[in-house]
Fold:
Amino acid sequence: DTVMTQTPLSLSVTPGQPASISCKSSQSLLHSDGRTYLYWYLQKPGQPPQLLIYEVSKRFSGVPDRFSGSGSRTDFTLKISRVEAEDVGVYYCMQSLRLPITFGQGTRLEIK
Amino acid sequence: EVQLVDSGGGLVQPGGSLRLSCAASGFTFTNHWMSWVRQAPGKGLEWVANIKQDGSEKKYVDSVKGRFTISRDNAKNSLFLQMNSLRAEDTAVYYCARDYNCNYWGQGTLVTVSS
Structure:
């Protein structure tokens, strides 16, 4: 299985400050079609997850531009340029290149 | 507006069965793979299964192979998960999601396996 490892597992951020989450995969997520199958989700308290970023760096519909994704092959990063109170929750990375589809352990973001 | 409504969860004894449903609306159901993802209480996300648009391909995580069956009824815009031989470790909120990349999610339905 492709293991997805997120760091840190938790972070506390002052509103208006940046935040960054790392996700490392045990195998390259680059497909022969040129696409990289790495996604980021946010699960707000009491809600289902919502897709933020697909294929490493593409923002999903309605996602604020303070969220950005970067990386390649096995190393990926989600950045929030200026954290807002509504960004509280658990962030997950996910790969869908290889079965089984696997998620990172999650990173809990709280507001200071 | 894309909507996915999960239902069918409940309390079941170990070894029992349950059938989950997901009613889809707001998009052309037959154009999309569909997935089930679960989340044990206080834990992270685990992909369970997915199914191709016409039902011709079905994929499962190893821990449910032979016990769970994913299916769909394209005439009724519905997705299903038949769960047999349930175990305590299957206790979780089960979410249906659209596509391989889970771009939209249902609100989830809780399955509790306990005697």
In short: The CA atoms of residues 23 and 59 of chain B lie 20 Å apart. DSSP finds no helices and eleven strands in chain B. The first strand of chain B starts at residue 3 and ends at 7.
